Amino acid sequence: MQFRAGNEMDLTGLNAPQREAVTTLHGPLLVLSGAGSGKTRVITYKVASLIFDHGVSPYRIMALTFTNKAAREMADRIERLIRLPVRGLLVGTFHSICARLLRIEKVMGGNFTIYDTDDQKKIIKGVLDDLNLSDSRSFSPGDVAGRISGLKNRLITPERFDLQIGNVFDEQFASIYRRYEMKKRKSNGMDFDDLLIEALEMITKNDLLRDKYQEKVQYLLVDEYQDTNRVQYELVRQLSNKHRNITVVGDDDQSIYSWRGADLRNILEFEKAFPDAKTVRLEQNYRSTATILDAANAVISRNKARKPKTLWTEGERGDKLEVHYLYNDLEEAREVTRRIRTRGPKSTVIFYRTNAQSRTLEDELRNAGIPYVIVGGLRFYERKEIKDVLAYLRLLVNPADEVSLARIINLPKRGIGDKAYASLCEFAARLQIGPFEALSRLEEALEFTARERTAFSVFHNLCLALSAQRQETDLVSFVQFVAEQSGYLKYLEESEEEQAGERLDNVSEFINAVGEYVERNDSPTLESFLQEVALLTDMDAVKNDTGEQVTLMTLHAGKGLEFDYVFITGMEDGLFPISRAEEEGGLEEERRLFYVGITRARKWAMLTHAATRRRFGTTTSAFPSPFLDELPEHCIRRIDRTGGSTSFALRDKPAAAPLFNEVRENRQAMPSYEHFSQEDGLLRNGMKVQHPIWGKGTVVMVSGLADNMKATIKFQNDAVKKVMVKYAKLEIVGG
DNA sequence: CCCGTCGGTTTTTTT
DNA sequence: AACCGACGGG
Predict the structure, then answer these.
(1) What nucleotide is nearest A129 when CA is compared to C1'?
(2) Which of residues 121-160 of A touch strand B (CB under 7 A)?
(3) Does nucleic acid strand C have an atom less than 7 angstroms from the CB of A727?
(4) DSSP string of A439-497, one letter each residue
(5) What is the pTM of this model?
(6) In whole angstroms, what is the distance from residue A709 CA to residue A281 CA?
(7) What is the dihedral of CA A530, A535, A538, A543, to 10 degrees?
């Protein structure tokens, strides 16, 4: 396929650095691209230009993204630029492309099951049971899963971990880790991390495959490079090693996934890893008003671990941002809703730090009749009913998949309870085969009761029947057949559960999704459908800002998107920044998240603090987020609707209507804390205190509540210390 | 084996 | 508040 045409692509719409990035074809290139500076444009133009102007075959270009949505958008935009459908271009997420390579090269027979976090936890739970560690408080499946993932992201195998065992805890953890890997392998399963690791291993250990892919990848482009982890870095390095035409695009200020293993060093030290790298900086912003950028720049400049840069714009000044102090989360939701009601839902997003915060907002929006969509939260493919149907399909494709077998062997009820299943597993272990395989050798077992034996063979026959049907019909009818014949649909229909109807709907929607997949693909197979689906996110369904409805999502989900109007709710210390992130680089990452939030806005943003909030079923109170103090006063208007008496009420107060007539604007730099008198025994910013060891100092920040209250104090010798108020024996000497 | 109840835990973010 | 797993009676 050749696209070389008489006329060249028109690059005059690009600014100078953008054009430089697009026209730098050879060698490593780092594009440091601030928020809203047109990085997607750069990537798409570059790919289009490679194909269109330089006759590069699409088969030789690989573009890696973090979400399927970003991948799809990129492909669309490239096609629009070239005005021709492009075949063969490898665009996708790291995970999906790796899965594809593994399938093509038949790693694990190309027929592995992708385990999500939920499946992963089930395996780990089994491991903990096996090792009698289930009720040791030190290990929860979730924690273990996170820790294992952290190690795998840094390419630390169980064997390597064994070498760094320091205590009994490590030792136990090591055996959990080892056993987890073993079990997973036995099931022919891969977790998310495995997809990357196995692909990396494949091309490092196999010379032929390495040559094949290094040769193939003539041009490699990586989006959101700041979020790559160690494994992804190695992959990128390996794949680009032959032709060395690698373009990475990213913004260290928008790195918000370190908890998932993202290593900021990848971008900060790109020039070290690729000494001949060229760097292009995109700092002109085409999205936001100057006021928004001022605010964002001021906030992010407080971070130390970053490449200094300043966004600028030729656009207008715009309106000041608003910071609202509200009595509680309900008032917060009302205030946000009130604003949206007067202006309409057009191009508006409401951000929050945690998914749990969405409920109150939803309720208010619904009451006000404002249409909204929620993005994120529970993924479609994570719903129980979907995972149940998926488990049937997975088992048929991969009979070794024990997670799926355990899930459905007694769903609907078939008289195979925990005990019966355990004894089947025991029998299987004796024969050194998997439990599913054991079903076909029941006659060799002596230990089963007649009842168990019957139940097992009923289930086994069901599977055989389903399996036989697979060859007979198309994918959609087959899935329908499975849902019916397994008895699962009937089970849902007869369920007394309130959500049963919704669940049935979801199952039909799932079957529709199978249909869409079949239409979309040239050679659809159940195997690849299952693998694709395992990597889908709810985010992939985000419609691009239709303007018809308000969008609700977490700040993390907002990256890469833009809206005219942005609301950031829950600006409370302990919630945002979230309390768990207090130490090390945690605060800087939270600040980057705040920066991402602000820079989503084209025209205007409003930030809200709720003095009290219902969390975990009880009312809790919190100080305003320290981030609110980092906004330059000339960019914002502060509006206090708490009534002026208590900005955060430690006592309960009946939820009153907002006191609109008591609105006070442009208050002094420090909100809220100033309402506290000394007899509250509480510290506030600016207070002078005496510390028994450090002497006199000024409080610069207060965080946490009650016994957890911490104060950051700048002492006379310029030392800044963070102390626990409870223990520090501080004496207030003025302020 | 199945179902109900009780108690403990949860919520940071996601491929 | 909501969800999950453990436990005990039918």
Answers:
(1) C5
(2) 137, 140, 142
(3) no
(4) GGGGGG--S--HHHHHHHHHHHHHHHHHHHHHTTS-HHHHHHHHHHHTTHHHHHHH---
(5) 0.83
(6) 41
(7) -100
Both tokens of residue A279?
């760097």
Catalytic residue among A247, A254, A537, A569: A254
- For the segment A659-717, what is each residue's pLDDT rounded down to a tens digit? 222 232 223 223 333 333 222 345 555 566 665 555 666 665 555 444 445 555 555 55
Which is higher by pLDDT, A220 or A694? A220
* Chain C nucleotides reached by a protein CB under 7 Å: 1-2, 5-6
> pLDDT tens for residues A322-377?
999 999 999 999 999 999 998 888 899 999 999 989 989 999 999 999 999 888 77
Q: Which has the closest alpha carbon to A578: A303, A267, A256, A325?
A: A256
Say if strands A601-615 and A321-328 run parallel, antiparallel, or are unpaired.
parallel
- Residue A719, helix vs strand vs coil: coil
Q: Which residue type does A369 have?
A: G
| pLDDT tens sequence across A450-471 | 888 999 999 999 999 999 999 9
Report the alpha-carbon distance of residue A49 to residue A10 in Å, rounded. 9
Q: Is the CB of A356 under 7 A from strand B?
A: yes
Give the number of other Cβ atoms within 10 Å of residue A279's Cβ: 13
For residue A160, give both structure tokens: 């390597």
Residues 266-295 of A with CB under 7 A from strand B: none
User: How many angstroms separate the CA atoms of A511 and A475, rounded?
Assistant: 10
> Which residues face A703 on adjacent strands?
A710
Q: By mean pLDDT, which of A246-250, A505-509, A597-601, A705-709 is the weakest?
A: A705-709
Provide, in whole angstroms, the distance separating residue A309's CA from nucleotide C10's C1': 70
Helix (H, G, I), strand (E, B) or coil at A176: helix
Q: Indicate if A254 belongs to the active site.
A: yes
Euclidean distance between CA atoms A356 and A374, whole angstroms: 12
Q: Check pLDDT > 70 for residue A541.
A: no
Question: Are A615 and A643 contacting, i.e. CB atoms less than 8 angstroms apart?
Answer: no
A517 contact partners, CB below 8 Å, separation of at least 6? A475, A524, A529, A532
Angle CA A233–A239–A243, to nearest 5: 120
Which among A668, A698, A664, A665 is positioned nearest to A683, based on CA atoms? A698
Q: How far is CA A223 from CA A27, A75, A86, A247, A635, in A?
A: 17, 13, 20, 9, 31
Backbone φ, ψ for residue A608 (5° rounding): -125, 140
